[in-house]
Each structure stands twice: as structure tokens, then as C-alpha cells.
User: Fold this.
Amino acid sequence: MKQILRELRTEMGLTQADLATRLGVSRQAVIALETDKHSPSLDLAYKISGVFDRPVEEIFENPYRPPQS
Assistant:
């Protein structure tokens, strides 16, 4: 799953702990998301979208949608 979560977080000057606090999750959860060890729930994906003020589709690639050429 292509994710730009780490890029967005660092662009905003947030640490993993800062982002975890904003999302209401543990720092370990943020690490798991950034390293593709865990996929976010829909609820968490929308929270992440809200923190970065970007559409969910811009942050997370839909693994069920064929790549567009």
C-alpha cells in the first residue's frame, strides 16, 4: 500500500508521538502505519485525512482498485 503518511507528518513538523496524540492512538500504531505493517480502519483513515486536510485517496492507495495508467 503506497502511503505518504511519513512525508506528510514530517512536512508538518510532527513527531510520531504528536501525530499519535492527534489521532488518539499509540505511537506504535503510527509506526505500524508508516511501515505498512498495519492498514488503518476507515475511521482512522478519515482522522488522518482530517489532520492533513487531504482526501483519504491522496494518502492511502486503494489496494482493490487497479492501477491507473
Observations:
- The chain has a mean pLDDT of 90.
- Residues 42-52 form the longest helix (11 residues).
